[in-house]
Amino acid sequence: MSAPARAFTPRHVQLLRALFAAAAAVMITFSPDHSAAVGLSVFSGFVLTTSLIMLLAVWLVFPAGQRWSWVVLALLGFVAGMTAGVPAWRTEDLFFVVVIAWALTTGVVELIVGLRARRAGETTARDSITVGAFGILLAVLLLTIPAGFVQPYAIQGAGEFELTGIILGVGMFGGYAAIVAVFLGIAGLTPKRVEPAAAASAPAPVEHGGDR
């Protein structure tokens, strides 16, 4: 008799991560305020809820040999989320420090997990590699923004404005969240491919006939 199917699977983890990333992207996109306070508030909620899903997945989805990476990712998310969640600490410098540190460390961990999974032939390898690469790319892009960046610009008929480093940084985080949401959403909704090994293990049909 085959083992009962799990109610919570890697596909559910992907879809829940996509849901929280989409929520973060929507809040950033439709907010007229791209200040450090707003950016860190959205970031805090995003990483804390995502970390909670990862901790649940440790016991409900992944076997013992694969749990360490999800525990590390969840702990990194909780540290970053709790730090960003203190209202008195929500400065522009803290936004860049916390988001860069989180994106780089979690990106490296997910990339390593994905590369190891690919060698083992696991179906989730591509997802981990891609999300890890997105995290590292976010960290690199945020590092390229000069400290104290301010660029005045004018829109005819609307007035004069300023493009600052924190506006760019919060916008980049929103773009990252949107890309991750779309990617993990597609991955979670894609029908599971039947592995060749599983097909080969199926019993061959028995031929019936008289002796010759």
Radius of gyration, whole Å: 22 Å
Shape, per Cα inertia axes: elongated
Distance between the termini: 36 Å
* Unreliable residue runs: 1-5, 195-202, 204-212
* Integer average pLDDT: 85
Q: How many E strands?
A: 2
- Spatially, the strands of the biggest sheet line up as 1-2
Short description:
This protein is mostly helical and 212 residues long.
Q: What labels describe this entry?
A:
6% strand, 212 residues, two-stranded antiparallel ribbon, 7 helices, mainly alpha, disordered C terminus, elongated, disordered N terminus
Descriptive report:
The chain is mainly alpha-helical. Helix content is 66%, strand content 6%. The protein contains 7 helices and 2 strands; from the N terminus they run αααααββαα. The protein has helices at residues 10-29, 36-60, 67-84, 92-119, 125-143, 165-189, 196-200; strands spanning 150-155, 159-164. It has a two-stranded antiparallel sheet with strand order 1-2. Helix 1 runs antiparallel to helix 6 (165-189) and helix 5 (125-143) runs antiparallel to helix 6 (165-189). The longest helix is centred in the middle third of the chain and has 28 residues, at 92-119. The protein starts with 9 loop residues before the first helix and ends in a 12-residue tail after the last helix.
